[in-house]
Design a protein that fits this description.
single chain, 6-stranded mixed sheet, 10 strands, globular, 4-stranded antiparallel sheet, Rossmann fold, disordered N terminus, alpha/beta, about 325 residues, 11 helices
Length: about 325
C-alpha cells in the first residue's frame, strides 16, 4: 500500500512538471517590450543585517577535510567574493549552501533560520538562487522558455488544476511570462528571446542561466564562476551587469570566481579559502594585500610582493582537495 502511494505521488509530480514544461514549449513567443524594468513582483520583506551566516562548517570526504571550521557572514545587499586556488573548497561550500551536501559540523543560517532541515528542493522557494560552473540549460527550448522555468518554484497550482487547465493556471503562466520578459529586457536578451539556447554563443548562454536563476526571485544569488569561459569584453559586460542586477533587484550575491579583476572590482567584501580554511576576510584591498592570500596564489617566495588584481588568478591545484 505504502509503495503504491509513493509511486502514484511520483507519477503525479512527473505529470505536473512534464505538463507544465510542455505548455511552456507550446506557448507562442511574444515580442519583448522595450520598457523600463520594474522591481520583481514579490516585494521582499526587510532583511536582517547578515542575510547569510556560516558558522564553523566542516565537511569531510573520507580522510579528506574539504572544509575546516569555515565561518563568515554575507551582509544583506552586498556582493561578497569567495576566492581561493582550485581545490580550496569553494564549490563544496556552495553545495552545502544549496543543501546538495550535508556538512559534518557547524551551522548555516539564512535570514536567521537554520538551513539544516531545508531539503535541496526547498532552497529556491526559500529565496536562494544559484548558477553553476557548467551550463545546464534546456538546449532545445528558447531563451524565454528557459527563464520561465526558473520561476516554477513560485507557482502554486497543483496536478488537477494543471490537468484541467483551470483559469488560475493560465494566470500563473501569464505572470511567469511577464516576469521572464522583464528579465529578458534587463539582461539584454530581447533580440534572442525566441531563439533556441543551442543556437546561441557561450557568453549569451551564460546570461540565460543568470536569467533563469533570477526568475526564482531570490534574495541571495549564488554565482559559481560566472566569468568562466568568457573573453575580456564579455567579462566587462558581466561586471556591469552584476552591479545593475544588484541595484535594480536589491539582491545579495555570493560570488565564486577565479577572475581577480572581476572579484576585486565588483565585490564589497572578499573571503579567501585555502585547503578548506578561511585565510582572509575583509575588503578587496585588505584581502589583496594579505600575506596568506599571496602565499596561496603565488607561493611563499612571493610574500612581500603586491598581489595584483589582474585578468585572472593563477590556477593552483591542491592534490586530493575538493573544489
Amino acid at each position: 500500500m505504502g509503495n503504491h502511494v509513493t509511486k502514484s505521488k511520483g507519477k503525479a509530480c512527473s505529470a505536473i512538471v512534464g505538463g507544465w514544461v510542455s505548455s511552456v514549449r507550446k506557448r507562442p513567443g511574444r515580442p519583448s517590450e522595450k520598457k523600463e524594468f520594474n522591481i520583481v513582483s514579490i516585494v521582499h520583506q526587510a532583511q536582517p543585517v547578515d542575510l547569510l551566516r556560516v558558522d564553523g562548517v566542516t565537511v569531510r570526504f573520507g580522510g579528506i577535510t574539504a572544509l575546516d571550521k569555515v565561518s563568515f557572514v554575507v551582509p544583506a545587499g552586498n556582493i561578497v567574493g569567495l576566492i581561493g586556488p582550485n581545490g580550496a573548497g569553494k564549490t563544496t561550500l556552495f553545495n552545502c549552501l544549496s543543501r546538495l551536501y550535508t556538512f559534518d559540523e557547524g551551522r548555516i543560517f539564512f535570514e536567521g533560520r537554520p538551513l539544516v532541515n531545508t531539503p535541496a528542493h526547498g532552497i529556491a522557494s526559500l529565496g536562494i538562487g544559484r548558477t553553476f560552473q557548467n551550463l545546464a540549460l534546456f538546449r532545445t527550448m528558447t531563451v524565454r522558455q528557459n527563464i520561465m522555468l526558473g520561476g516554477h518554484c513560485r507557482t502554486r497550482s497543483g496536478f488537477f488544476a494543471n490537468a484541467l487547465r483551470l483559469p488560475g493556471v493560465r494566470r500563473e503562466e501569464d505572470e511567469l511570462e511577464a516576469h521572464a520578459d522583464r528579465l529578458v529586457t534587463l539582461l539584454d536578451l530581447s533580440s534572442v528571446a525566441d531563439t533556441r539556447v543551442m543556437d546561441l554563443p557561450f557568453g549569451t548562454q551564460k546570461r540565460v542561466e543568470l536569467g533563469r536563476a533570477l526568475a526564482s526571485q531570490p534574495k541571495l544569488l549564488l554565482l559559481d564562476e560566472p566569468a568562466g569561459g568568457l573573453n575580456h569584453e564579455e567579462v566587462g559586460v558581466l561586471m556591469a551587469l552584476l552591479r545593475e542586477v544588484r541595484e535594480r533587484l536589491k539582491l545579495t550575491m555570493l560570488l565564486v570566481e577565479h577572475h581577480m579583476n572581476l572579484v576585486m572590482r565588483v565585490s564589497d567584501k572578499v573571503v579567501a579559502l585555502d585547503f578548506g580554511r578561511i585565510i582572509a576576510d575583509g575588503t578587496p584591498a585588505e584581502v589583496q594585500g594579505n600575506a596568506e592570500v599571496i602565499r596561496a596564489y603565488l607561493g611563499a617566495e612571493s610574500v612581500g610582493s603586491e598581489f595584483s588584481a589582474g585578468t585572472a588568478a593563477p590556477v593552483t591545484h591542491h592534490a586530493g582537495a575538493a573544489h
